[in-house]
Amino acid sequence: MAKLVMTPGPTNVSARVMAAMQKPVINHRSPTFRKLYKDVVEKTKTVFETEGDIVIFTSSGTGAVEASISNLIRPGDNAVVTSFGEFGNRVGEMVEVYGGTTVKASAPLGDCPRMESLEEAFEKTKEVKALYVIYNETSTGVAFRWLKQAGELASKYGAYFIVDAISNLGGDELPVDKLGVDICIAASQKCLAAPPALGIISLSARVKAEFEKNPPKNFYFNIPRYLKFAEKGETPFTPALPLFYALDEALNVALEEGMQNRIARHKRCAESFYSILGRLGANSFAKEDVRSNTVIPLLYPPGVDDLNFRKTLDEEHDVIIAGGFGEYKGKMFRIGCMGEINEKIVDQTVSAIGKVLGR
């Protein structure tokens, strides 16, 4: 029996998408690949709701995050970063690696910074090159719900607006161009329901002009190099061809459903998880007004052993979930509510959890 992968990524991939990877390997400098590449880019633009350029890296989502930083941040630049979990902290660390200074807008775990915190960070910093917002903090299941205001704040100070939407793009509202996002970051293995190892970013015309004016010194993740090759429908380095086929099919599935329908489905399933599991004594770790629709973070009822609980779910019920991070390791578990999620999968997951908790 196949496992039900209910982690916050990678997530379940449909047989239809998996079958797409069985297509023959082709020359990545051929007309066939150029058509595939251009098709994938155009479909991705629709999902991102952008007219900007799309770059696809053969990498994890973290690779795409690093690309956004290594191409934009220079020694001495200041970047305001929302810090309310593991992945926000990683962004701050990467900014420092490339010589920038991280100015954190922080919040306790289970919550996220409010606009007052971001405004204070801008006010106390003389010049801000970029604002990095973690839209959906995968480690805590907390979503930042003030993207419009954050974009307006970045614009007010002349900063670039970067959104890490790796764990919720395709499962939550994110009209990139409407919100003025300069770089939006996603990955294949989350709400797009494709296999892992493709990092995806969108670029505004404004940030492209910055790269032309101040060319980055990196190599593999050099965005201007990708854009140059994209003009002829290619990537500068050998892409993961089977994953491109899979992403193409996953995008077809998403667009056939319709993005608004897809987003509504994710929200509906998330509400079911919170409601049903809350009644079983597993309450949301995230505050209600900022809880995620794609990563469900739940606190264990008293007396539940984390490793034994998740092992039993896996071995006896074929349901795989994730544990907590850092100081909440062993105290909470996380469910991925993304991609192929539907009412049947919710029922199967909560039934299994209920049986194990009932012990």
Describe the structure concisely for a colleague:
The chain is an alpha/beta fold. The protein has helices at residues 15-20, 31-48, 61-72, 86-97, 115-123, 147-156, 176-179, 205-213, 223-230, 241-257, 259-279, 306-317, 343-357, and strands at 4-5, 53-58, 78-83, 101-106, 130-134, 136-137, 142-143, 160-164, 183-187, 198-203, 295-299, 319-320, 322-323, 332-336. It has two domains: 4-10 and 259-357, Aspartate Aminotransferase, domain 1 (Alpha-Beta Complex), CATH 3.90.1150; 16-256, Aspartate Aminotransferase, domain 2 (3-Layer(aba) Sandwich), CATH 3.40.640.
Q: How would you explain this protein's 3D organization?
A:
It is a single chain. The protein has 359 residues and is an alpha/beta fold. It folds into two domains: 4-10 and 259-357, Aspartate Aminotransferase, domain 1; 16-256, 3-Layer(aba) Sandwich (Aspartate Aminotransferase, domain 2), CATH 3.40.640.10. The protein is 43% helix and 16% strand. The protein has 13 helices and 14 strands. The protein has helices spanning 15-20, 31-48, 61-72, 86-97, 115-123, 147-156, 176-179, 205-213, 223-230, 241-257, 259-279, 306-317, 343-357, and strands at 4-5, 53-58, 78-83, 101-106, 130-134, 136-137, 142-143, 160-164, 183-187, 198-203, 295-299, 319-320, 322-323, 332-336. The protein has a seven-stranded mixed sheet with strand order 2-10-9-8-5-3-4, with helices on both faces. Strands 11-14-13 form a three-stranded antiparallel sheet, with helices on one face. Helix 2 (31-48) packs across helix 10 (241-257), helix 11 packs parallel to helix 13 (343-357) and helix 12 packs across helix 13. The chain is globular and about 60 Å long. 47% of the residues are buried. The model has no long low-confidence stretch (mean pLDDT 97).
